Backbone:
């Protein structure tokens, strides 16, 4: 598959010229962070929750405590939609009306399945952790059977997805270019700062490879 | 009011020790960004959309084109819930299980009203723009009547809200402190980079005060 099927769920309605349905673009956006916002319906009202995820192929993994209301809500709905957003800058036009933001976002809709079995759950948790910080899984004390039993892991298979991207300069109405007002873009970046070792470290340990690599990417 | 009433909507279920219901804390988190994630229900499925907002008192303003499906969905539901999330760092524990993130988030639930009249709409749009970049409204060509007519502005009055905050060091199980594994926090920061003037600027204009102030806060 190169492109997601377009339907009423994933079709970008506003600013359709910013829509991208290519799988490669969707994956690139999904893979450059680990935080998504998921909605579930509780007593008729939608509630939005930020949570970590991991992507592998067309699957998104989420995890939480077994009593997690959001996870249970997704599971009983059998469907989930989630959104990932990178904010890249403020678009400062001459007119208030044409102010905007540069961003890359993905909205996806998927079918929800509860993972059973410690091997499948452990693999999914590895995908989530590696999405947060590649290499970290092998540096950690891996989950015990008791911890796995206390963890609910959901697999969301992507049914539809779309990306929306805005980049570049402001676009003003033709007559406003003569106004003598400044316009431009104020870029926003996210970066990592030097790691703060746990004050309770008992040994003289170097900052691990996963952290060093992340700082090198800054 | 100093504290939001706690009920089944805003009560923090997971990690209740991280919950904050103080209005001042909720406002501080809301006021340190301008991007929220809103959910609306469409044909029985919740959809999450990132959008700009502005806060004034206990009101949150959102805006969009008059045909915006999300805005129309919120309006017909007469209620909205939205979430604001600041990601502050990766919490790297010794155990995979105790990995976490440092963050500050707010979830709020409110009653939705469509703003009528150009004065009220223009004021709300100013609140949204000033939330994005204080001082920018007065540097811009203000909205025309035609532009205001093309814009749907919603006022969401906060009914319930809660904040959830995690900060500080990893917390591992007692026996894991002896493992000889590194643990710590990898802080994440957002910053603004130098403004990129629109290549179509016709005049020799300085970067405006709003942008200079934002860069000074970095």
Residues:
């Amino acid at each position: 598959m190169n492109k997601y099927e377009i339907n009423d769920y994933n079709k970008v309605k506003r600013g359709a010229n910013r829509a991208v349905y290519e799988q490669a673009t969707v994956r690139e956006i999904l893979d450059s962070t680990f935080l998504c916002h998921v909605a579930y319906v509780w007593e008729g009202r939608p509630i939005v929750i930020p949570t970590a995820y991991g992507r592998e192929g067309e699957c998104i993994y989420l995890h939480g405590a077994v009593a997690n209301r959001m996870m249970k809500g997704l599971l009983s709905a059998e469907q989930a939609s989630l959104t990932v957003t990178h904010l890249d800058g403020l678009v400062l036009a001459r007119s208030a009306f044409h102010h905007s933001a540069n961003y890359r976002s993905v909205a996806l809709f998927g079918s929800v399945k509860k993972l059973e079995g410690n091997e499948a759950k452990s693999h999914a948790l590895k995908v989530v952790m590696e999405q947060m910080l590649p290499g970290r899984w092998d540096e950690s004390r891996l989950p015990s059977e008791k911890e796995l039993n206390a963890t609910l892991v959901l697999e969301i298979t992507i049914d539809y997805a779309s990306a929306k991207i805005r980049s570049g300069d402001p676009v003003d109405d033709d007559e406003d270019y003569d106004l003598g007002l400044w316009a431009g873009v104020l870029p926003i970046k996210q970066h990592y700062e030097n790691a703060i070792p746990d004050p309770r470290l008992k040994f003289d340990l170097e900052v691990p490879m996963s952290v060093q690599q992340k700082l090198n990417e800054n």
Summary: The longest helix of chain A spans residues 118-132. The domain at 16-191 of chain A is CATH 2.30.110.10 (Pnp Oxidase; Chain A).
